[in-house]
Design a protein that fits this description.
The chain has 315 residues and is an alpha/beta fold. The protein has helices spanning 11-24, 52-61, 75-78, 82-102, 137-156, 182-192, 211-223, 244-252, 266-272, 281-287, 295-314; strands at 3-6, 29-33, 44-46, 66-69, 107-113, 160-165, 167-169, 195-198, 206-210, 235-236, 240-242, 259-262. Helix 4 (82-102) packs parallel to helix 5 (137-156), helix 6 runs parallel beside helix 8 and helix 6 (182-192) crosses helix 11. It is globular and about 55 Å long. Bound molecules: nicotinamide-adenine-dinucleotide (NAD) and serine (SER). The site of serine (SER) has 10 residues, from loops.
């Protein structure tokens, strides 16, 4: 087995690459990105996902058998350049899917998202199949991507597996321009400054997940027996749901002096178009998904690790 991770230098890719290397061995997992990481990440290759010939060369040179295709431009950053976002997110995926078919790769992982939701999507316990009419180009590209994943599975038998990640929160990497980024930034600001100005309104409830749960869900999905995977577009998935005000309360349990104020910007409208809670019963039924982290447990773990990180840095 030889795995290629695209977008490996991002918030999730950094952790997923490390995690896959622990499971499959360092040399079996090739990290790639358009940006070079500022730490040792060997084996690492520069790869612009729009360079089809380069992906082909990597598949051939490294006998790639699986691709975890994370390269993308996220919901907030995507709005600054809609056509580029569509091109990177959708045409990048199409190249990966088509080369996976051509080289008969064993598996492809595609992270979808709650950003496929739109104003017509039911906001509470959003079902697996619901009306989706995303308002961001990021959401549009991910929804179209889900259709293409399903198409490649049905038409060519490609084993493509996908999760609709909620907002992902972790202490070991920084978010890359999404609408849920506040839920990571708030911890860094709480520890370093004791105050955070939130770009979402206090009552904006969104589905979220701790990085440890996201890694476990990804591994469990990818390692599940083929016969158990009945959805090849994107599985609904969730860990917890909270508002910025509730997260601030949870942080105050550990840092009682922490304060927060709110200056909602353009990301508020994006967040308001997404669901608040998710029904992930299909993931539970098909491959046994159960989250381990709720708001309190996630908050305690974030503060523990970031406290340690910043005290070490200042010594
Ligand atoms: P990120 O923005 O932190 O990382 C994305 C990476 O893709 C970056 O390192 C970037 O350099 C790279 N990239 C951008 N354009 C590229 C190109 N043309 N060629 C190659 N690489 C390119 O994002 P993330 O949070 O790590 O997300 C990873 C994946 O998970 C994305 O597909 C995203 O849509 C999905 N996802 C993330 C979340 C979340 O909360 N973080 C939620 C749902 C889905
Ligand atoms: N966390 C991501 C974003 O906000 C959701 O895919 O863009």
């Amino acid at each position: 087995m030889s795995i290629l991770v695209t977008g490996a230098n991002g918030q999730i890719g950094t952790i997923l690459t490390r995690n896959l290397r622990e499971i499959y061995g360092k040399d079996e997992v090739i990290a790639s990105d358009i940006l070079r990481p500022n730490y040792d990440d060997d084996p690492f290759l520069m790869l612009d996902i729009l360079n089809v010939q380069r992906i082909r060369e990597i598949i051939e040179d490294f006998n790639i058998t699986e691709i975890y295709h994370l390269a993308a431009i996220l919901s907030a950053n995507g709005e600054w350049n809609p056509l580029k976002t569509w091109n990177v997110n959708l045409n990048g995926l199409l190249s990966v899917l088509d080369l996976a078919r051509e080289y008969a790769l064993e598996k492809v992982f595609f992270p979808s998202t709650i950003a496929i939701h739109g104003p017509t999507t039911p906001k509470i316990d959003t079902p697996q199949d619901a009306p989706f009419m995303p308002t961001t180009v990021y959401g549009m590209s991910k929804l179209a991507g889900e259709y293409w994943c399903n198409y490649y599975h049905q038409r060519f038998g490609l084993d493509v597996r996908s999760l609709r990640y909620p907002g992902i929160i972790g202490h070991d990497s920084l978010p890359g321009g999404g609408t849920t980024d506040y839920a990571v930034e708030i911890f860094h600001e709480a520890i370093n400054r004791g105050h955070y100005t939130c770009f979402l309104a206090p009552d904006t409830r969104l589905p979220m997940m701790y990085m440890d749960d996201a890694m476990r869900a990804t591994n469990e999905l990818m390692q599940a027996d083929k016969t158990k995977i009945r959805i090849h577009s994107g599985y609904n998935l969730t860990g917890m749901s909270f508002t910025p005000a509730e997260l601030a309360d949870a942080i105050r349990v550990h840092i009682p002096t922490f304060t927060i104020d709110y200056k909602p910007d353009f990301r508020q409208e994006i967040a308001a178009s997404w669901s608040q809670t998710i029904d992930d019963s299909r993931a539970k039924e098909d491959w046994g998904w159960t989250p381990a982290y709720d708001l309190e447990k996630m908050t305690a773990d974030m503060i523990y690790h970031l406290d340690k990180f910043y005290s070490k840095k200042s010594n």
